[in-house]
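Table S2 (continued). Query chain:
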Amino acid sequence: MLHFIQKFSQASSKMLKYPFMVGLGASGRTETLSLKTCLQQNFSPLFLRTLPFSSFLVCMNKTQYYHTSPCSFKKKPVLPARPQKTIMYLPDSPKPALYISLAGLIPFFAPPLIMLMTETYSPVLAFTQMAYGASFLSFLGGIRWGFALPEGSPAKLDFLNLAGSIAPVVFSWLAFLISERLSEAIVTVIIGLGIALHNELFLLPHYPNWFKALRIVITLVAFLSFVITLLLKDIYPEKRPKRPGQVE
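Corresponding output:
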């Protein structure tokens, strides 16, 4: 072991005395740099390489040389595209379905609009609004049943689809059953509209996107019109029908 250490120290002292080969230039001359000169200039000798066409720089400044592996850069995760909101499919609705549905909103907004103009609450107008909403609930149930009947329809003839089509009809029947208490009947229709919309959007997602967007708009408009009617009952005096022979 001692003999090996002595050999190594002798070889190191010889390396300090003799120059290093830097490279072979295009002119054929050999450039030399001593180890001592490299250390004084903050350079480090690299392996001896001979290039036939250009001089190869062997000593490089430690403070100016950086190596970064391409693998050290992390790729940014590609985020999936956000799905388009259902309401944005409304312009894709067929024109006949869009125009007929918008015209079907008139019976919802006409009664509260008339009451606002006359500044009186009319139970008759409120009842017609409630009756139209209950009839609309029955219509929604019929749409679901008819959607499941054709062969090849994505909606199967199972209990989920058929029972879901019956639920709006049940709320419509309850609204007419308690129609003497008009406010409770209107609330029943509102609940039925909300449950029908929830079923069509989440539990039974087979309708086209444009139809779902149309249903959202109709339900929101109907809900707003019923809320206005309930508020007008507490704001304006009630308009009672005249009895035969009654003098104003």
